[in-house]
# Entry
Amino acid sequence: MFLDAWTGALGANPVQRTLHQTGLLTLVLLILSLACTPLRLVFRWTWPARVRKALGLLAFGYAALHFLIYLFDQGFVPSAIVTDVLERPFITVGFTALLLLLPLALTSRADSVRRLGFARWQRLHRLVYVSVGLAALHYWWGVKKDHTAPFLAVLAIAALFAVRRIWKRRPPVRTRATQPGD
# Structure
């Protein structure tokens, strides 16, 4: 995106193109952050847990940039923006997804876990599930013709939720260290 801006390859409507690119990057980063837990559960990899927070914060950063570009596109006129958010469900859903990500970004520091307590912090961070669903709906409504990409995004989200659900129902795997009598 920045390379396209530098080389003048953003096309006839650079604001719309950067708006679409930042929105798509937000959704992709949210999906990648949600993929970390299923990767850990299925493959027993530990590295996804180390990058999950960075992916989530990056997703929030792109979502904020996406919103900033939207504000720029609206001319930073508060009344027009409020009217747009209240009257266009496509915008309302995207704005709600951004608002749900805000407390997650604000409580992403380690001391937030200590202040809130792990259980409360974990419940708060489950808002990402609602946010990613709303972001996918926002993407679906934003695409006018070919819904292949939004469908793939919804499919990826559904698959990630399914893996979590299936793994929760599985009996715990005993490792050599947890077997009785050892």
In short: The mean pLDDT is 91. Residues 14-43 form the longest helix (30 residues). The CA atoms of residues 48 and 150 lie 24 Å apart. The two ends are 56 Å apart (CA to CA).
